């Protein structure tokens, strides 16, 4: 049985795509154990009615997929990991950086892996999940035990029919995604606009070059190979153009009144700067402004 912790759009996408009867959601404490039902609109074909059971407390999953928000992950896992066998890998799907390292540091002997995905999923209504864009998922180990389970974990996730690949340097992939999110998400939340609209806005045009400069320095200081600030900007703008009509996850969180993941995106970069002695005024300014949004 594959257990999914976090029943947001990404968790529900994997639940709908993985083989039926082999997947269950991990219940939050004191939750009723009725199954979770929703409509699923795939990329092609008719809408499907999905019904996913909650994992009984007595059952141990063979794989735990974690799709909680970055800020909720450690606390949510503290409820679950103590009863998880050391042979059941944990795969973390969080945005940004920081939360994954905390999990790996908390359970260093457990098989902990991180995933990054470009699959698009959204929830225009609470009981409807839309698979909005086909993407790719990369999975790699964060702890030594995670390596042992990498091939098996990729094979289990690939039973969804989604494209899933093993990655030997997952940190580098997480950094690439972090850069895109750091250059798009706070601007869309602050300016309250879809991804493509930031590109012509004076606020974005004023800050994107110094932001890319900061990110480039941080990337190098943390041992990652980095492109030039100009190349980082090009990569950010290519994604903003390709997803021009999308509402970013940070703008969506803000519009829904949820806590954003800014602490794990530009906030992570600002904290990293403080650790390694690199000034990060633009990352700090974007973090502060997103936190002040109502
Ligand atoms: O990953 C994204 C997000 O919204 O978090 C981007 C790439 C910005 C697409 O919307």
Written overview of the protein:
This protein has 294 residues and is an alpha/beta fold. The chain has two domains: 2-168, 3-Layer(aba) Sandwich (Rossmann fold); 172-292, Orthogonal Bundle (N-(1-d-carboxylethyl)-l-norvaline Dehydrogenase, domain 2). It has helices spanning 9-17, 73-80, 99-106, 144-148, 150-158, 170-191, 202-221, 229-242, 249-255, 266-276, 281-292; strands at 2-5, 23-25, 36-41, 48-52, 63-66, 90-92, 112-117, 120-125, 128-133, 137-141, 164-166. The strands form two sheets. A seven-stranded mixed sheet has the order 2-1-5-6-7-10-11, with helices on both faces. A four-stranded mixed sheet has the order 4-3-9-8, covered by helices on one side. The longest helix has 22 residues, at 170-191. The radius of gyration is 19 Å and the shape is globular. The model has no long low-confidence stretch (mean pLDDT 96). Bound molecules: ketopantoate. Ketopantoate is lined by residues 95, 180-181, 184-185, 195, 239, 243, 246, 248-249. Ketopantoate binds next to helix 6.
